[in-house]
Amino acid sequence: MIGTLTGVLAAKSPPHLLLEVGGIGYEVEAPMSTFYSLPAIGERTRLLTHLVVREDAHVLFGFGTESERRLFRGLLKVSGVGPKIALGILSGASVEDFLRIVEAEDIAMLTRIPGIGRKTAERVIIEMRDSVQKFAAPSAREGTALSPAVSSPQGEAFAALVALGYKPPEVTRLLKAADEPGLSTTEIIRRALKAAAKP
After folding, report:
1. Strand 4-13 and strand 44-53: pairing?
2. Three-state SS string across the chain, please?
3. What is the pLDDT of residues 132-168, one digit of tens each?
4. Which of 83, 169, 189, 198 lies at a 20 to 30 A Cα distance from 161?
């Protein structure tokens, strides 16, 4: 099992990224929460990983924090939830938001995440409500996986828009509209807010 990868970020195109480690390029799929925290292409980063073995492929998933990986693994244990849906949930809600959704049994909020229907949302809430607290437990490694990430313009813009009251899925959509290399955090936020104001 591959537990972590540390290397140079060679390419990123959500949900895929390429991390060069010791002359080998690892293709990794990651949630948007991890993408917004990645450093620039050509810089070093560290990802926590989870390997999914299927009949036709071995797929490596990468995460910026231990709590994201822990939640991903927990979601895979839910009946009818595969890696694609688990990645969608992590892309549409932060770990903290997901915990609040499950505790409040907010099925409507969960169904706003692309790919999550009502039956799947109900199953996720029922099967995870008893174990949800362990995903909130702090880890000694929390926050260290993407040390350069905190200061990335996209990561700062994501956090700022969530703080303004936008839901993570909406922030993801707004930041796509403001996606252009080399923009400052302020400019990304400005463009995202301009996109939000459009009818």
Report:
1. antiparallel
2. CCCEEEEEEEEEECCEEEEEECCEEEEEECCHHHHCCCCCCCCEEEEEEEEEECCCCEEEEEECCHHHHHHHHHHHCCCCCCHHHHHHHHHHCCHHHHHHHHHHCCHHHHHCCCCCCHHHHHHHHHHHCCCHHHHHCCCCCCCCCCCCHHHCHHHHHHHHHHHCCCCHHHHHHHHHHCCCCCCCHHHHHHHHHHHHHCC
3. 666 654 443 344 344 334 446 777 777 777 766 777 7
4. 83
CATH 1.10.8.10 fits 152-199, yes or no: yes
CA nearest neighbour of 148 among 36, 45, 66: 45
Calpha distance 102→133 (Å, rounded): 10
Rounded CA gap, 66 and 122, in Å?
A: 25
Threshold 0.85, pTM exceeds: no
CATH superfamily of this structure's domain 66-136: 5' to 3' exonuclease, C-terminal subdomain (1.10.150.20)
